Structures are given as structure tokens and as C-alpha cells.
Amino acid sequence: MAWLVLVVSGLLETVWAIALDRSAGFSRPVPTAVFGFAIVLSMLGLGYSLRTIPVGTGYAVWVGIGAVGTAIVGMLALGESTSLARILCLLLVVAGVVGLKYAH
Fold first, then answer.
1. What's the rounded mean pLDDT across residues 49-53?
2. Whole-model pTM?
3. What is stated as this protein's family in its record (predicted)?
4. Using CB atoms within 10 A as the burial measure, which of 31, 36, 55, 58 is most buried?
């Protein structure tokens, strides 16, 4: 259960990161509210997961999921560059996250 919660929390990190960008410095109320809601849920889930998953592994997986998810949303929906090098680097992050899961 802790791993499922950790994955969902990592996905929520993507939500709050995109909402933070869209909030324009917290000047737009809806993205600001989404940011606040998502970051609180994300942190609660991370905290719950760290009850049974070691902090180094849990935090690295959480950050990796959030970073890769945010980069993918940026490339697919926000017009950020989609170079081969960038995609390969993201695949390396995914490989690291999967490796941490199985090394646990």
C-alpha cells in the first residue's frame, strides 16, 4: 500500500508543479488553490509512505515521478522542447526510480 500511495503522491507533485507555474506567482486563484490542495495531499502521502519505505528511497522515487511527470506534461501540453537527449535523460530517471524500487 505504501508504494501505491508514494506513486500517487509523486503524480500529485506533477499537479502542484504545473499549478505553481500556472498560478503566475500566486496571482491567479484557481491554479493557486490547486497548488495548495495538491501539495498538501502530496506531502501527506509522502509522509505516510515513509512509515515503511526508507526515506532515501521514498524521497528519490517521489521526486523522480514528479520530475518526469512534470517534464512530460511540459513537452506534451506546454510546448517545451522534445529532443532525443531530453527523452533519453528522462528514461534514465525512470530507470533509476525502478531500480530503487527493486533494490528496496
1. 97
2. 0.89
3. Belongs to the drug/metabolite transporter (DMT) superfamily. Small multidrug resistance (SMR) (TC 2.A.7.1) family.
4. 58
